[in-house]
Amino acid sequence: MTASTLNKKTISFNFLSYLKSLLLLMKPRVMSLVIFTSTVGLLTAPVTIPFYNSLIGIFFVAMGAGAAGALNMWYEADLDKLMTRTCLRPIPTGKVNRNHALIFGTALSVISVLGLNYFANTISAILLFSTIFFYLFIYTIWLKKLTPQNIVIGGASGALPPVIGWTIATNSLSFEPITFFLIIFYWTPSHFWALSLYKAKDYAKAKIPMLPITNGIEETKKKIFVYSLFMLPIVLLPYYIGFAGQIFLITSLLLTLYYNYICYDLFKFKKNKFELKKAKKVFSYSILYLFLLFVLFLIDQIIR
Fold first, then answer.
1. Which of 101, 187, 200, 241 is least crowded, fewest Cβ atoms below 10 Å from its Cβ?
2. Splitting the chain (304 residues) into consecutive groups of 10 residues, what average pLDDT does each group show?
3. DSSP state, 145?
4. Residues 6+ apart with CB under 8 A from 22
């Protein structure tokens, strides 16, 4: 192997490694959830649009979610260095330059919003812009280090993708997609507070006022349980407005009651203490729970 060939392979490897780091900057796990929920919003809409239009619309929504993730990592690079959960992200490890992350995130934001406006409609583009703006400026820059309610208010940005999926298909807003928004919005606090219980030291080190730090373990466990109870009327809503049928109603209630049970099980443990296994169980199940609720929307739509 010549030196020239070896050099070309090294350059190729470095380029592919950099592309991988840029992808990680976009928070691919969050992007996959965005793709899934926005697709459900699109497929459950009463209007069918061509496959190509659907694909390109979801693509730009995913790009916008990736843009928000990249800008979040750009702004929080110094905090990410301090936390075990985030210290291996591309910027703290030096795989991506912080200024490059800003340029990358900004470019993706502009392209995704303009692209969605051109290939879909203005309502969807405005909602996508609102998602990126809210996540970066309202949640990341303003609320995250200001109040323990950061995740409650900030959850609005994560709740918009299925609404965008709906508007891509319909070019309009109605009460039905708002039920998607409410499900994710009220699900978010219990999900993240369960995580914050066993990652409290990380948040304390980064000086992020998560609930276990500011209000204590007992209050956090109580609010996890309370927010899980909020999900009961929320999952009833799609049925009572005629958006979902009995299959969704019965199954979602059973899933929610089990969620209530494990959150209560976490809460009733010794005062001002929590069991790690139970906190992780709530966090893990909450992910499966949200996924299954959206799958149920699809199944219910197909059967009906």
1. 241
2. 52 75 94 96 95 96 97 94 89 94 97 98 98 95 89 90 98 95 96 93 88 94 97 97 95 98 94 90 97 96 84
3. T
4. 70, 90, 96, 104
90/122 Cα distance (integer angstroms):
33
Q: Does the pTM of the predicted model rise above 0.85?
A: yes
What is the distance between the alpha carbons of residues 161 and 163, in angstroms, rounded to a whole number? Answer: 5
What gap in Å lies between CA 58 and CA 38, rounded to an integer?
7
End-to-end CA distance of the chain: 63
Q: What is the DSSP string of 260-289?
A: HHHHHHHHTSSTT---HHHHHHHHHHHHHH
149 phi and psi, to 5 degrees? -85, 10
CA distance 112 to 58: 10
Distance CA 265, CA 242 (A): 33
